[in-house]
Amino acid sequence: MNNSEIAAALTKMLTLRWSPVAVKLLKPGEKIPEKVTQPSVPLRHCQAITLARRGNSLYMPPSRHACPDGAAIMGLIPMSPKLRSGELYLLFKKLPTIECAQKMIASRQEFEAGTYAATVLAPLEDAAFEPDVVIFTIYPEQMMWLMCAASYSTGERHNFHTSGYNSTCADLTVQVMKTKQMNISFGCYGARAISDISDFEAYVSVPFQQLPTLACALEKLSAKSIPEARRKIYMPPVIDKVACAEPLAGNAVDVRIDSERCTGCGLCEAFCPEAVITMMTVDGQPKASATVPEKCCACYTCAGQCPQKAIQLTLR
Ligand code: SF4
Ligand code: SF4
After folding, report:
1. Ligand 2 centroid to 226 CA: how many Å?
2. Most-buried pick from 145, 236, 248, 293 (CB within 10 A)?
């Protein structure tokens, strides 16, 4: 898959609002990729990401970087003494003591000054270069599916290294390039103050090399899990009036299966975690029957999975 195909697949499967943003750090002397232009004004790295997710392809040498912190963290320029010491974080009242500021600075990932000469950014679908990382600006539900896709073939959980400081430069770019691990960020003071990221959005950054594997896993998840979850198929019909005056004795669920509708596909028996449902033969036809209703925990899995809408749960 090329960049454009991967971007199209991810956008469709995750229903992305914004283009994923391809980010590459250029080494000194490295050729500038095609189709990128310098912005007319200096921008912060988080602002450049905003412009790229809105369709712009940018070449950003140090003179185009408006944030001295971000440019230094990404190894484009030396860090100024005031930023290195942490005193500016105290002035902004983002941290209480110089010790806290220095600890925060020491624990983030940075590249040494001069390691890189420029940043290039583009919507993934337009990127005429191989990015180091791809940054998604997305909703929590979409983040969840990216996490599922990243675990899909291994079952592994994820550990993230993030903070409320230096979001797009340290946590989404340098951290991911150095560790080659996906990372998340909720944005930082700068990114929230100067870009269009909404209160309901956050970021995920993925090493570019892992993107095809993620896209494959998302395709598998799109076959069943994603559409089912988005249709809320396990949500009981009435979930906002569940309080009752007296504690119920024992199990209080009736599992009713409409034998006229039931086609005997067996999905309910297969998916029921409590083995409540058994397939029977009625007049030579397979039919589902709730043979052990007292074990029903009211999870609604059977009702959600039944393609015939043949199962009704009644809470007594
Ligand atoms: S899932 Fe529905 S149609 Fe299939 S066996 Fe169960 S009740 Fe019948
Ligand atoms: S609601 Fe859950 S436990 Fe009860 S019968 Fe359906 S799948 Fe089984």
Report:
1. 21
2. 145
Q: Which of 188, 211, 228 is the last residue of a domain?
A: 228
Segments of the chain assigned E as strands? 21-26, 58-60, 118-123, 133-138, 183-185, 202-207, 253-257, 277-282, 285-290, 311-315
Ligand nearest to the CA of 299: 2
- CA dist 5 and 124 (Å) reads 9
Same domain, 145 and 217: yes
Structure tokens belonging to residue 140: 């929590």
Q: How far is the CA of 232 from the centre of ligand 1 (A)?
A: 19
Count helices and strands (H / E) in the chain.
Answer: 13, 10
Which residue, judged by its Cα, is nearest atom 6 of ligand 2?
A: 302
The alpha carbon of 157 and the centre of ligand 2 are apart by a number of angstroms equal to: 28
Residues 139, 136: Cα–Cα separation, whole Å: 9
**Do 272 and 187 belong together in one domain?**
no
For 246-268, the pLDDT digits (tens) are 666 666 788 999 999 999 999 99
Query: 233 C-alpha vs ligand 1 centroid, how far in Å?
Result: 15
Q: Which atom of ligand 1 is nearest to the CA of 264?
A: 5
pLDDT in tens, 273-309: 999 999 999 999 999 999 999 899 888 999 999 999 9
